[in-house]
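Annex B. Sample input.
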Amino acid sequence: MPKREPKGKSLTHGPVADIIAKMTAMKKTRVAEIFRVIADEIEFEFEPAGEGGYTVTVPALPGCVSEGDSFEEALANIKDALEGCLVVARRRGLPIPRQLQGKVA
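Annex B, continued. Sample output.
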């Protein structure tokens, strides 16, 4: 028995079709996994990048971001970036989160 569409509403055109298309696209979207790593008593968040490698942030210091093609490279890069962020923060007299004080030169 063929399916009938409700009178006055089309599932192939209009707002309903747009919603169905968006939901279908969402199902195809890969959800990135963010994982936390503590190294040298500092917490880092790693997110796999779509093109490969990782994007890394320091939750205690928003704006401190780096990346790397491998986990090891990303970790080394974020440590270098963190050191640079802390140098700039000290020079400008900006507050440094307690958990980062004395951790990096």
